[in-house]
Amino acid sequence: MFFTLPTLLTWTRIIAIPLIVGVFYLPLPEATRNLVATVMFILFAATDWADGYLARKLNQTSAFGAFLDPVADKFLVCASLLVLVHLQRADVFVALIIIGREIAISALREWMAQIGASKSVAVHMLGKIKTTVQMVAIPFLLFDGRLLGFIDTGVWGVWLIWLAAILTAWSMVYYLQRAIPEIRSRVR
């Protein structure tokens, strides 16, 4: 099920990365680059919801799609964070927390799957909330201007990305706490 509509939508999040990064190299006014990158991020991030919905609705779920979906999300978020650090709109410490957690939890999930304990680190609501806050913070920081004339997206984005970093650390602790008993029981 490599070329189903849901899987193709998932691939668009990966394809989006060079497009979003490339916007910031175009000879356009900064406000235009910010707006284009923001709209692109929002549209591509929305495919996360759409691919899952369509996979269930069209009965096109697959192991490959289940693997690729979170990978695409992580690529999109991590690449956007690196752009934001480069633009000095996000703190490098925030990026390290978020990217480091994604690497650590991905490795943990793979290891837990190898020892037959993947259910102990299955996706939890805390992880979904973390992802939602990240997906709201990033477009605010990409836009970096006034929305509706009075919402300073730069300020709100900074607060939200720090909240995302806190939720990211908290979710990592949660998953580690869930994994430790399984690890202890199998290492003995």
Question: Helices, strands, pairings?
Answer:
Blueprint: H1 5-23, H2 30-57, H3 63-86, H4 92-114, H5 125-143, E1 146-147, E2 151-152, H6 153-187
Q: In sequence order, what are the helices and strands, one letter per element?
A: HHHHHEEH
Mass-distribution shape: globular
Q: Give the oligomeric state.
A: single chain
Gap between N and C termini, in Å? 40 Å
Report the major sheet: 2 strands, antiparallel
Evaluate the radius of gyration. 18 Å
Please report the total strand number as a whole number. 2
Number of helices: 6
Mean pLDDT: 89
Structural features:
2 strands; mainly alpha; 188 residues; two-stranded antiparallel ribbon
How is this structure best summarized?
This protein is mostly helical and 188 residues long.
Explain how this protein is built.
This protein is globular. The protein starts with a helix and ends with a helix. It has two domains: 1-88, no CATH class; 90-187, no CATH class. Helix content is 79%, strand content 2%. The longest helix is centred in the C-terminal third of the chain and has 35 residues, at 153-187. The model has no long low-confidence stretch (mean pLDDT 89). A two-stranded antiparallel sheet has the order 1-2. A hairpin with a 3-residue loop joins strand 1 and strand 2. By secondary structure, the chain is mostly helical. The chain contains six helices and two strands; from the N terminus they run H-H-H-H-H-E-E-H.
